[in-house]
Amino acid sequence: MSRLSVVLPAYNEELMVGKTCRVLHEVLAEAGISYELVLVDDGSKDHTWEEILKAGGKDSNILGVHFSRNFGKEAAVFAGMAQATGEVVAVMDCDLQHPAETLIEMYRKWEEGYEVIEGIKKSRGNESFLHKKCAGFFYGIMSKATKVDMQNTSDFKMMDRKVVNSILSLPERNMFFRATSSWVGYKTAYVEFEVHEREGGESKWSAWSLIKYAFTNIVAFTTAPLQFVSFGGGICFVCSLVMIIYSLIQYFRGHAIEGYTTTILLLLLIGSAIMLSLGVIGYYLAKIYEEVKRRPRYIVSQIIHGNKDVTGSVRDDA
Question: Membrane topology per the record (predicted)?
Answer without folding.
Answer: Multi-pass membrane protein
